[in-house]
Automatic annotation (TrEMBL):
Residues 1-22 form the signal peptide. Gene3D superfamilies: Immunoglobulins (2.60.40.10). The lineage of its organism: Bacteria, Pseudomonadati, Bacteroidota, Flavobacteriia, Flavobacteriales. InterPro entries: Ig-like_fold (IPR013783), PKD_dom_sf (IPR035986). It comes from the Bacteria. Keywords: Signal. SUPFAM superfamilies: PKD domain (SSF49299). This is PKD domain-containing protein.
Length: 294
């Protein structure tokens, strides 16, 4: 009798395990339905407050309850930020600020607010001409720096942007314009960059140097910022302000920084040079180029 009872208990245990395995095998591996872990009611609300003592500067504060990560977009692409962000909107206009809150299990929600800037900041005006590439006149403000003897790499202008194309094989090309600066004044450089696909052994570098660019000669005077697959960015698709998605160190500071300062008043050259060995098939697109007093 005792032996039979043990056998029956063993058979019941095997039957139970087979039933559980059968039920779980029918459930997709990535199914999270009714798992109780995903927060489908994330609160993405946030406040926008002018920062006292700073012109056209605002503090964004997201409500923190149930929020694990904050994504922000102030008009130039989404970036991962903090739940409290300080932003500068130096130009007059209407801006849509978008906050995406991510909660437990990947649940997310989005909220947006409009901010109206009545007057441009006189000290932070954009010194770049034609930085949006919106018209033929804008595009004419830029000079092409021919660096590939065969012309394999080239810049094209369309949709209020400029795109660098390269077949790879280290072909590269540049664009630049002259800008007048003041001694010892700090400036910031930025621009929106994007590409739907990544590259390998590729660079996109921004310079602000005193040397006059010369056709066929790689420009290397005062590298400020950029993208570099060797440094870990542009390997996959990207979109956002270069100050957020870039990873190239500033020659002067030795850190990833978009701040520049000059020892003399006079003319400098804002130059973008890009190319690579296995360059993205979609090219790297740039717009909203800015050079502003800090």
């Amino acid at each position: 009798m005792k032996i039979n009872l043990i056998k029956k208990q063993g058979l019941l245990a095997l039957f139970f395990m087979a039933t559980v395995l059968s039920l779980t095998s029918c459930q997709p591996e990535d199914s999270v339905e009714n798992n109780g872990l995903t927060n489908d009611n994330v609160d993405a609300s946030f406040t926008v407050t002018p920062v006292e003592g700073k012109v056209n500067t605002y503090k964004l504060v997201a409500q923190p309850k149930g929020v694990l990560k904050s994504l922000w977009d102030i008009g130039a692409g989404t970036y991962a930020g903090k739940m409290e962000e300080e932003i500068s909107l130096p130009d007059a206009g209407t801006y849509t600020i978008v906050h995406t809150a991510i909660g437990a299990g990947g649940g997310k929600a989005t909220k947006s607010q409009e901010v109206v800037v009545a007057t441009s900041d006189p000290l932070k005006g954009n010194l770049v001409q034609g930085g949006s590439f919106a018209t033929a006149a804008d595009q004419a403000k830029w000079t092409i720096l021919n660096l590939s003897a065969s012309g394999a790499a080239f810049w094209s202008f369309a949709n209020s942007s400029a795109t660098i194309h390269s077949p790879g094989g280290w072909a590269q090309e540049g664009i630049y314009q002259a800008i007048d600066v003041v001694k010892d004044k700090e400036y910031t450089i930025d621009m929106k960059v994007s590409s739907p696909s990544g590259s390998d052994e590729t660079w996109f570098e921004v310079y602000a140097g005193k040397s006059v660019p010369q056709s066929g000669v790689e420009y290397k005077d005062n590298k400020v910022m950029g993208l570099s697959t060797w440094d870990g960015c542009a390997k996959a698709g990207f979109s956002g302000m270069l100050s957020k998605v870039g990873c190239v160190k500033n020659d002067k500071t030795g850190t990833v920084s978009n701040v520049v300062k000059f020892t003399e008043t006079g003319k400098i050259y804002l130059l973008i040079r890009s190319g690579g060995n296995t360059f993205t098939k979609d090219g790297i697109t740039v717009t909203k180029i800015e050079f502003r007093g800090k």
